[in-house]
Amino acid sequence: MMTKGNIEKKRKVNPYNVKSESPQKIDDWKRRSKIIILVGYDDHSTPWGYAFDNFYDGRNIIKSLSNKMGETTSIGNVDFKPFDNLTTKWVKSSELGKNLWVIRIDNSADCERKFPIEAHTAFANKIARGLIQGAVYKAFQLDIINKKLSIEEQTELDERFSSSYEDYTNEAIFQETIAVKDEALEDLI
After folding, report:
1. Rounded Cα gap, residues 42 and 171, in angstroms
2. What are the pLDDT digits (tens) for 79-113?
3. 3 state SS of 174
4. Does 170 map to a domain?
């Protein structure tokens, strides 16, 4: 909540530093980029978040949308308010797809600047307008689609966004890094 004494900060994402192409196969370059509006598998289709497909180098843009610093983010000429309950993660492979940037709306969070879930679809449309106005994408390169998550997809994504999954993954990576690679060398020390 802004008071008279607060000065609103603004950060601008430079669209010229963002590439929409990938160092992946040429076939991937031809794919259209997608903003996928994710809704839960429940009967109410509760807004869950967003997935960004074929946004390989769009990290700065996507991460800036879930800033918790209280700064307004601008993409092109479009401004986005800050929300405390949006979290962004890179998902290499999942039930939902591969190489996705995913923004999760944490509806349980008790926070000062809570994302208005009734604006779930409008937010995706506003992101698309910003990307097009900022010359990151041309209109024919971008799609917005709705996706109702299956139970399996939502469960997996919920686990990935939990702190215990991150702790487990970090531990597994660390253990793999320090594992014995060469028994002969280990015997020397």
Report:
1. 33
2. 998 888 888 888 888 899 888 999 999 877 577 88
3. helix
4. no
* Tally of CA atoms within 13 A in the half-sphere of 71 that contains its CB: 14
**In terms of DSSP H, where are the helices of 35-112?**
59-65
**To which residue do tokens 């799609």 refer?**
143
131 neighbors 22 (Cβ within 8 angstroms): no
pLDDT of residue 161: 85
Residue type, 86: L
Angle at 37 between CA 80 and CA 126, to 5 degrees: 30
Residue 32 has a pLDDT of 80
How far apart are the C-alpha atoms of 142 and 11, rounded to whole Å? 24
- Tell me: pLDDT of 123 over 90: yes
How confident is the model over 28-66, as pLDDT tens digits? 444 688 999 999 988 888 899 999 998 876 778 888 888
Q: Which domain holds residue 127?
A: 10-14+22-150
- CATH value at residue 67: 3.30.780
Q: Where are the alpha helices (DSSP H) in 105-150?
A: 120-133
Q: Considering the domain boundaries, does residue 95 fall inside one? A: yes
pTM metric for this prediction = 0.70
Is residue 3 domain-resident? no
